[in-house]
Write a structure and sequence with these properties.
16-stranded parallel sheet; 13 helices; 29% strand
Length: 419
């Protein structure tokens, strides 16, 4: 241990993360204390990591954090997550940010203060690469001063901000690649709640629990788009064909437009979503590189709509993972399995039901026959609402049918997931 360089000891302490653990470990000997003061690069104060954070008064907690931070030099990653803790005074928090701002690369910040602190003002024009903000408000973004020339990742959760300020903030981050927006309180300047964001460098965006009339995103380099639990009237994406990953989960949207540049899509994952199948299929039909397609718990806008599996096999020849779960109707099963098509490259098939019926086993049989190199089959089902004898009988018959079917496919791994 005595032969370890100070830099290595500093890296070891930095891996501990939690400030309390780092301070305790640094008491090992004088050499470790020296490494703690000069070579620790990561500190985390998280009220969920140590119950005593909730027992201390805010003034005592402010002193504790101040003393700990001020013993370090060259801190690069600082995390201060104070859930369920009373508001801090602004002065000590500003002192923490000003003391570390020259060296800081990552800041994860969830601190309520009186009065509110303008985080952008304290951290702008520095070397910050990752910024995570929660339960704060951002007002009056000034792009000429509050620039983030090195910022690559920005996460805002439960933050109050206007649509205009968010747009300006994004333009103040010329190198941003990852953007996460969760449950924002978005202030609008007019009657129509429209948000217009633009970034030439953005590659990955996650949007959760946001309600808007219109959301327009212009991102020439976007590769990953994930919408979760959102209510939107219109969502429009303008990109240059770089999109590779599309996930839509529990989203209500009247008009969805991801543009014409879908030829590089590799993953499409849609769940708990009402779709107009012909329009949605047209939107992704040029994605000849698609490898994973998941349509789970989807509801069709028109009851007569059918997922045309033959068209899917023709449009997406490289598909290796296929996951389907939607309400089965007799006509839909028969029409959906028409034609001599095959999923030539599908190795994993996931199938589920929302309402159990005798049609499911026929559907499974038809799909298995069209997957010549399948290696794994996963059956998902909801059985918690099964009450009547007839429904129990259907489940028993289905299970027996699957068992008999799998005797023909001994090379296939079968897994059942019931809830």
């Amino acid at each position: 241990m005595e032969s370890l360089p100070l830099e290595v000891i500093g890296n070891i302490l930095s891996q501990l993360g939690a400030a309390r653990d780092v301070v305790i470990a640094s008491t090992t000997c004088r050499k470790w204390q020296k490494a703690w003061r000069n070579h620790v690069r990561t500190l985390s104060f998280n009220s969920n990591d140590w119950s005593a954070y909730h027992d201390l008064t805010t003034s005592r907690l402010e002193i504790l954090i101040t003393q700990t931070i001020f013993q370090t030099t060259g801190l690069q990653c600082l995390s201060i997550i104070m859930d369920g803790v009373d508001k801090f005074s602004a002065a000590p928090v500003i002192a923490w940010l000003m003391y570390t701002r020259d060296s800081l690369r990552q800041l994860h910040y969830n601190v309520r203060t009186t009065p509110n602190i303008n985080i952008l003002e304290k951290c702008g024009r520095q070397k910050l690469e990752v910024l995570t903000l929660a339960y704060n408000s951002i007002t009056g973004v000034e792009p000429s001063y509050q620039k983030f020339p090195c910022l690559k990742s920005l996460s805002l959760s439960n933050v109050s901000i206007s649509a205009l300020d968010l747009s300006i903030l994004l333009t103040a981050c010329p190198k941003i690649e990852i953007l996460s927006l969760t449950n924002l309180d978005i202030a609008m300047s007019d009657a129509q709640t429209t948000m217009d964001l633009s970034s030439a460098s953005l590659k990955d965006i996650y949007v959760e629990a946001i309600s808007l009339d219109k959301f327009i995103l212009e991102a020439d380099s976007l590769e990953k788009l994930h919408l979760n639990d959102c209510t939107l009237e219109v969502f429009e994406l303008a990109s240059k064909g770089t999109l590779r990953f599309l996930k839509i989960d529990d989203v209500s949207v009247i008009q969805l437009d991801i543009g014409e540049g879908t030829e590089n899509l590799e993953v499409v994952d849609v769940s708990n979503f009402t779709i107009m199948w012909p329009k949605f299929h047209h939107m992704i039909s040029r994605s000849s590189k698609l490898r994973r397609l998941r349509l789970w718990g989807v509801v069709f806008d028109d009851e007569d709509e059918v997922v045309d599996l033959q068209t899917i096999s023709a449009c997406f020849p490289l598909l290796t993972h296929l996951s389907l779960c939607y309400e089965l109707r007799e006509g839909a099963v028969q029409y959906g399995l028409q034609g001599p098509f095959e999923f030539e490259n599908v190795v994993v098939l996931e199938l589920g039901w929302t309402v159990i019926s005798d049609l499911f086993s026929h559907w499974v049989t038809g799909l298995l026959e069209r997957c010549p190199i399948i290696r794994r089959l996963v059956i998902y089902g909801i059985v918690s609402e099964v009450k009547t004898h007839d429904e129990c009988q259907i489940l028993a018959t289905l299970t027996s049918s699957i068992v008999r079917l799998m005797r023909k496919y001994l090379h296939v791994e079968v897994q059942f997931e019931y809830e």
